[in-house]
Design brief:
This protein is an alpha+beta fold. The strands form four sheets. Strands 11-7-6-8-9-10-1-16 form an eight-stranded mixed sheet, sandwiched between helices. A hairpin with a 2-residue loop joins strand 2 and strand 3. Helix 3 crosses helix 16. It is globular.
């Protein structure tokens, strides 16, 4: 089977698509979003690009691909994440509430025990990585890159002017020592807790619970702390300025930031209590402004009534990495029957270290402003959850269409019904079969999906015609997904050419300033930002990519369909509740078409 990272270096290189196929795919994706006249202009611009500077840039990209196994590797994190200056909390981080099937109903006084069991399970996963005993992932006979798991623990995004830095401190046992502590934030205070012993074992569950209980009690007894974590919610350049000021005024602050930087996990104790499923989803997405250190790649959020969630910095890892972790933790909790009945014996351990920042009036004012600004941002996010049996894996098996294609087409129809137009749509596709592979963009709004949604809105169109167009749209979607998974999408290739132009001092090619580029979603302008969490129970997601857009993260379970939909309340044109209603209606209508086909065959 092999050790965790054994095959990473032997994975195939990320391919460079031909310029011709990328231009063809891009032009096809533009068609649903522009007029015939605009399309003619775009075709001219793209053809000029392919014959001119694009051809020159393509040759340079090929040269880079001969030097690097993944020509996108050194560009991706800065371009997609680290140069973005908007706050990462909500805008970029991914968050979710506990599994809806959790055996932990709200119960005051249960937080420490539940946090202990969750964190202990997380540390068991850490040990698998440290010892390299997590089996390498294989899908459809293809080995997948495992390098993202190196960024799950002891990884922090550090603010810096213009472009942030990612600090990765994880090492396998064969590579050397690794940090052995957690950071815990409670009531505005920050603590450090050693959880890995010198012999690489985890402190016992009872010992971990004792440390958490001490922190919970101590943080309450000394009153509300300054809540320095709030600074991580601000614009990245503002946070970089305040981060530097923290370091400049005191060596103690530098030491504390270093402890946080190297912490395996951020554990957040929040004063919040659970509410409705939608309120819980919102709280997990937004975290706790006083206690969540949003720069950490892995964070557990534990409420006063024992309910929990997670909120993770997204730049070093994609969904599969976090889902694998989440699935493991859930399995360990189930193995323990969601409780602990072992020995209560504890050794005399060092007390958790209370990390006390040295602050001046300017920093206190910055924290106060950050709290106020974040309250406005968090209240602007509208989150709604669908948890319905209207669609499921069982129902998907009744038709010949792939479940993910059905959901993507339902998303297209829901948006078209609400807004009377096509939505440029991002769906993430995994490229981890390649060396250091990350994602590719599936532009799932296609001419075929547009033809189908047009037919669905036409009362004169027959069921048979609608079904035929549905099948064509599903086939087109499946083809694009397969091409993207094989490194043959158009967006990452175009990004590489665009970044090369900057590096070479070439004026921005017209393909990237043409109206069709933004209209079709280019440059981070996808109106529908979507992702599947591949049949897992995870219930979470992300914010919309644009002000007038939606975020939709979904899973198809054996007996139900689950989706988290987000939008911005400040936009008068979007409404998460209305979108959820139309999505359910669209799923129903698709199944009605497929049902009519089955009946016709009988």
């Amino acid at each position: 089977m092999g050790s965790t990272f054994e095959y990473d270096e032997s994975l195939p290189p990320l391919p460079v698509p031909t310029l011709e196929e990328t231009c063809r795919k891009y032009l096809n994706s533009v068609k649903p979003h522009v007029t015939p006249e605009e399309l003619l202009r775009t075709e001219f611009i793209v053809n000029m690009f392919a014959a001119g500077e694009g051809k020159q840039l393509q040759e340079k990209l090929k040269q880079k691909s001969r030097r690097m196994k993944n020509w996108l590797d050194d560009w991706w994190e800065p371009a997609a994440y680290l140069t973005v200056r908007t706050p990462i909390a909500i805008h970029s981080n991914i968050g979710g509430q506990s599994w809806l099937e959790s055996k932990w109903p709200p119960l005051l006084g249960s937080r420490c025990e539940r946090a202990t069991l969750w964190v202990y399970s997380a540390l068991e996963f850490f040990q698998l990585l440290r010892r390299e005993t997590l089996p390498p992932h294989v899908i459809a006979g293809k080995r997948l890159a495992m390098n993202q798991f190196r960024s799950l623990f002891a990884c922090t995004r550090v603010p810096s002017p213009s472009v942030d830095r990612l600090h990765r401190h994880f090492k396998t046992a064969s590579e050397g020592p690794c940090p052995r502590h957690l950071m815990v934030a409670s009531n505005g205070h920050v603590y450090s807790v050693d959880v890995i012993c010198e012999d690489e074992s985890i402190i016992s569950i009872s010992e971990l619970k004792q440390q958490f209980s001490w922190i919970e009690s101590h943080s309450k007894s000394i009153g509300r702390g300054p809540g320095v974590s709030a600074l991580t919610t601000t614009n990245r350049d503002i946070w970089a300025k305040n981060w530097k000021h923290l370091v400049d005024i005191s060596s103690t602050n530098k030491e504390i930031l270093d402890v946080i930087d190297k912490a395996l996990i951020c554990v957040t104790f929040s004063d919040a209590t659970s509410g409705t499923i939608n309120e819980n989803a919102h709280q997990a997405m937004c975290g706790d402004v006083h206690n969540s250190w949003f720069d950490k790649s892995l964070s557990g959020l534990f409420n006063a009534d024992g309910t929990f969630g997670s909120n993770n910095e997204h730049s070093p890892a994609d969904g599969l990495t976090y889902l694998t972790f989440s699935h493991f933790v859930e399995a360990r909790l189930q193995y323990r029957n969601w409780t602990y009945k072992g020995s209560e014996a504890v050794r005399k351990l060092p007390q958790p270290r209370h990390l006390q920042f040295i602050l001046n009036p300017m920093l206190c004012q910055a924290i106060e402003s950050a709290v106020k600004d974040y309250s406005v941002l968090a209240s602007n996010l509208d989150v709604k959850i669908i948890d319905s049996d209207i669609y499921s894996k069982q129902k998907a098996k009744l038709s010949h269409l792939r479940g993910d294609s059905v959901v993507q087409l339902a998303l297209q129809l829901a948006y078209r019904r609400l807004h009377n137009m096509n939505a440029p749509t991002y769906e993430s596709a995994m490229t981890q079969k390649f060396y250091h592979g990350r994602t590719e963009t599936v532009r799932s709004c296609t001419p075929e999906s547009s033809n189908w949604t047009t037919a669905m809105l036409d009362p004169k169109c027959t069921k048979q015609a609608k079904l035929s167009l549905l099948e064509k749209a599903a086939d087109a979607h499946l083809l694009i997904v397969e091409e993207c998974q094989n490194g043959r999408g158009c967006d990452r290739h175009l990004l590489g050419l665009q970044l090369l132009a900057v590096e070479e001092g070439i004026p921005t090619p017209s393909i990237f300033t043409d109206k069709s580029w933004k209209a079709s979603g280019g440059g981070g302008n996808f109106v529908l930002s979507t992702s599947s969490v591949a049949g897992t129970k995870f219930c979470g997601g992300f914010a919309p990519m644009v002000e007038h857009g939606y975020g939709a993260c979904y899973t198809i379970l054996p007996d139900r369909f689950r989706c988290q939909v987000t939008s911005w309340r400040s936009c008068v044109h979007t409404d998460s509740s209305a979108f959820c209603e139309e999505l359910l209606r669209s799923l129903h209508d698709i199944q009605d078409l497929l049902s009519s086909e089955r009946k016709a065959r009988l």
